[in-house]
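Q: Hi! First time doing this. I have a protein sequence and I read that you can turn it into a structure. Is that right? Here it is:
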Amino acid sequence: MKSRKSSLTFNSFQDLKVFLESNSLSFLYRSDSHLADDGDKKNPESGEELFKKAMEGVRPISRDKCVERTLQTKLPKGSRNKDDAEALKKLIDLVKHGKGFSISDTPEYVEGTGYHVHSSVARRLHQGDYSIQAHIDLHGLRVDEAKEIFEEFLKWAVTNDKKGVLVTHGRGLSSRSEPVLKKKVVEWLTRGPWRKWVIAYASARSCDGGAGATYVLLRQRPVSKRLKIEKRRTTPSYKGRS
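A: Yes, that's right. Below is the predicted 3D structure, encoded as structure tokens:
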């Protein structure tokens, strides 16, 4: 005869179904739900109401009394690259203060010299080694208008013994291809009759218009044919090595 324990262990699924539908299990469910209802009745306040009650009397701090802190992340000394740090410092100085920027390092830079003049004169002119005594603004004019005013200005400059002048022509950013007026000014200084009066010319510094203006250094008198011949005779010739 089998024991009572083993008979309970091997009950069929039908007996289990009867057990689940029995009144005793239903009573347990009713008891649990009843307890839950009682708990809700005892604690009717929601989470939002509890939070408001806990924060009662709290006031926000005024923004005027707040201290803002800027946190800067510093890399460990062992992982720093000195070259990168130096380049970053130069970039910051360039963006904030304009330090380190040179017009001569850009494609817009122009310079040139007259008869038998060393190229260093043009670079010194760009650097501001020569004083600028007069200025003319051609920006926005048509080419024919600009040429007329340009020639009148240079005539006035050489008549009144003005050696260093500034010609503003613009950068030609609105031109479809190349800066027309800027190119014309260089052409008038190098191919026209004023080439005999020009010692050197160079793009201006940023404070005077940068690539949108040109410094011009003028002679006291124009170069003559006789002076050209004398210069050729006195200038030594050098033959390259084969």
